[in-house]
Specification:
Elements: H1 2-22, E1 27-31, E2 36-40, E3 44-49, E4 54-64, E5 67-68, E6 75-77, E7 80-84, E8 92-101, E9 107-118, H2 138-145, H3 147-172
Parallel strand pairs: 2-9
Antiparallel strand pairs: 1-3, 3-7, 4-5, 4-8, 6-7, 8-9
Helix pairs in contact: 1-3
Length: 173
């Protein structure tokens, strides 16, 4: 009987532990938010992650109407990755591309867009915001990829509980 219980516990651990290893960190929030229209261009862009990212291989590139306006290097502060923007950056459409190493060592990449009416240099943007349509939302794909391991863990746990209840009732007789 003890062997059966030990076997069930070992099987439960084997099934449950890989689910946490499959999940990768995701960007939970960007500042400015994707698609936002701002009155004033901020001095930095910030990506907030579910887990603290690593500084290894960190790349954040902010591109505006005049080209690259990222200034210096991005830094990690807790759950945030912060990239300064050049004070000479004008108003207009902006794209932020990033590649960050998550806490589990996997790369997380993506882009987001925003529009600023007034630049850090005081200039006013000409024209209107451009609508950007990305082929895939990186955060949505990461959330979808976590569904299968989570469901597998839940189903396996329920099966193990059922087997345990059956064995327990048989032993009590």
């Amino acid at each position: 009987m003890h062997r059966l219980v030990s076997l069930l516990l070992a099987l439960g651990l084997v099934v449950a532990l890989p689910a946490s290893a499959v999940a990768h960190d995701v960007v939970e929030k960007t500042t400015p938010s994707d698609g936002s229209v701002l009155e004033q261009l901020p001095g930095t862009v910030t990506l907030t992650f579910a887990e603290a990212p690593l500084a290894v291989g960190l790349q954040v590139v902010v591109t505006g109407p005049t080209g690259k306006v990222s200034e210096g290097t991005a830094t990690v502060s807790g759950l945030d990755v912060v990239q300064p923007i050049s004070p000479a950056a004008p108003g207009g459409d902006y794209t932020v591309g990033y590649r960050v190493t998550s806490s589990d060592g996997h790369p997380v990449t993506g882009t987001f867009h925003f529009y600023a009416r007034v630049g850090l240099d005081g200039s006013t943007a000409s024209g209107h915001p451009t609508v950007h349509v990305d082929a895939e939302d990186p955060a949505a794909g990461a959330k979808d990829s976590q569904f299968v391991p989570i469901m597998l863990t839940i189903v396996s746990t329920l099966v193990l509980l059922g087997i345990g209840a059956y064995v327990f009732t048989r032993v009590r007789r």
